[in-house]
TrEMBL record:
Main location: cytoplasm
Taxonomic lineage from the root: Eukaryota, Metazoa, Spiralia, Lophotrochozoa, Mollusca
Cofactor needs: pyridoxal 5'-phosphate
Keyword terms, alphabetized: Cytoplasm, Hydrolase, Pyridine nucleotide biosynthesis, Pyridoxal phosphate
Pathway noted in the entry: Cofactor biosynthesis; NAD(+) biosynthesis; quinolinate from L-kynurenine: step 2/3; Amino-acid degradation; L-kynurenine degradation; L-alanine and anthranilate from L-kynurenine: step 1/1
Function text: Catalyzes the cleavage of L-kynurenine (L-Kyn) and L-3-hydroxykynurenine (L-3OHKyn) into anthranilic acid (AA) and 3-hydroxyanthranilic acid (3-OHAA), respectively.
Compartment annotation: Cytoplasm
Descriptive protein name: Kynureninase
Amino acid sequence: MAKHHPLEDLEKACAESGLDMADEQFARLMDSRDPLRAFRDEFHYPKMSDVLNTDLSLVDPSADCVYFCGNSLGLCPKKTKEYMDVQIDKWAKMGVQGHTNGELPWAWCDECLEEDMTKIVGCNREEISIMNGLTVNLHLLLISFYRPTKDRYKILCESKAFPSDHYAFESQSKLHGFNPEDVMICVEPREGEYTIRTEDILAVIEREGDKIAVVCFAGVQYYTGQLFDIPTITKAGQAKGCYVGWDLAHAAGNVPLYLHDWNVDFACWCSYKYLCASAGGLAGLFIHEKHRSNDFPKLLGWWGHDLSSRFVMDNNMDLIPGARGYRVSNTPGFLCVPLKASLEIFSKTSMEELRKKSLLLTGYLEALIRRSYQRPVGQKVEDDGMSVYIDIFTPHDPQQRGAQLSLAFNVCIEELFKELEKRGVVCDKRLPRVIRISPSPMYCSFLDVHRFMGYLRDALSAAKASLGHLNTQKV
């Protein structure tokens, strides 16, 4: 049976309304039908006049910019400042007593947010902890789960893993006296393809599994936007005796996750991308309840000591079972504030509802790009010196992607990125060829997508005209 694609819903809406998909009125129609449209008003959405590098002669300064960079930093919830003022006022008036009083008592402020976070990643409360930054948490987890032996010592990950993950794997292997080149198995896409097939990952696990200590992939691959098949890969790795963990930096708040039900061993994620909890915001850590009372090696700190006896100060560790026991230092109370503001908004809907909109929104963007810029079958980058083409690195199958399309151009992306910035489009580039476009369903609209397509058209024309040639750089 063929998989349902959001394009079918979009085409149905076109047929029923008599509108063309590229018409502005169609975008407005889709926005009017969006049950989540009111959430945009709960965020500060930047204006054209406020974002840097915008040429205000090309746009309406009072209009909203096109913010398609939730995959890097989510927008600021409007409640953040109000909640931050409460904490500053508490500090000013109470001093140290703020640790145990008022909203978000600093001594357990992270625990106040756990229940809402469980709904984002799909787990039980005792399976998570809100703490540190993502890579710190990854290291803490690897100390426990990467315990190499002479026979089982390898780490399986994707090629082009995010640099922090790659460096963490390298450094952990060195700490155990191994050569990273011998330890790391980096799965590559097939020749001529951009993403990694699940079947190829499973084949490596089947072939090398007896030597693999840890399988650790990104939930959503940052460069291509590919959503990996987390439950299938987890089951396959564990069947070969491997621990399986996930970096969910680009997945948390983006796609529905069911870490407990998927039997994932461990996971970590940040909160500043789709979760909108401020730059460098607090990260999360997950350990499945089956490892709740583990005796794995771990780094210990005072904040992993049970609160009931923490202040006895007798230096006899009363370790909290599960994820909270991995806390090393007290949680920075002020960093809980933006996360509280964001999670309150998320709690008004569900990841399943956000996913429904995301599929339509990203599908709409994909449809418009393919209509205008799809390369003819068999056409190579260097075959045509005049036409502009866009290759979409992100899978066409909506079940294999989140709220991101990674676009590759035969126009120099350095120049194109500048031209997009001039028109108030906030996105990001990843060399050598990709510009990442991420219409976050929490606050982005179909009209944003329609406006982006107009700005993209103008930016492509300007970039090509300024350079006088096309870019033929490979992936």
